[in-house]
Amino acid sequence: MSVRSFEIDGKAVTGLPEQTIFDVAWESGIHIPRLCHVGGVSNVGSCRLCMVEVEGRRKLQAACMTKVEEGMVVHTDSERLRKYRRLIVELLFAERNHVCAVCVMNGACELQDLASELGIDHVRLRYQFPVLKVDTSHERFGMDQNRCVLCMRCVRVCDEVEGAHTWDVAGRGSKSHVVSDLDEPWGESESCTGCGKCVQVCPTGALFAKGKSVAEMRKDRGFLKYIVTAREKHQWVR
Fold first, then answer.
1. Average pLDDT, stretch 133-154?
2. CA proximity to 164, closest of 126, 198, 119
3. Residue 220 belongs to what domain range?
């Protein structure tokens, strides 16, 4: 299997044919913003925050979905990309009801971190203020649709790692929302195993553990990569 040599932000890097630009950038210590990507599950390219410029291509490319090629020249931090990412984050804030001051993830939220990184201190768009529900019917966890960014991490980890497929997405456009089973209360789900993997990979306070007050929630996303790697190496098979 031949190695591909190319360039990211002026840095010479190498990657295998099955790797994406995001994979190689991550391994090389090059930061590319993202919300939907999380190590251990498949990529879907839904958040569009990891878009990069590839010389010779007119359109922006999703780094998590674009395979590396020999000789490609990639730019991850141009002014065009920063403007694009700021607009995406502002759209996310305007579409739902994100109130950081009263969120359990305040100070440890990936969306909040992105806003700070991009210098967003206000939203130029009109807030939609949708009426969205909070589901606390589960014994241990809660779901706040107001803080969901539709990254679908919960859907993928429940399907690909836990194998329960409790979560899915219903609706279209701005009406899209995450549902458990056939849009039933989470606490009534017959498929949910209560493992909490979906809570741990959620980038915001949309999925949370009960009993946490403002700014108390902390999530461990590194566990997922450990589980997947251990299964691939058959470390738990006797």
1. 97
2. 198
3. 100-232
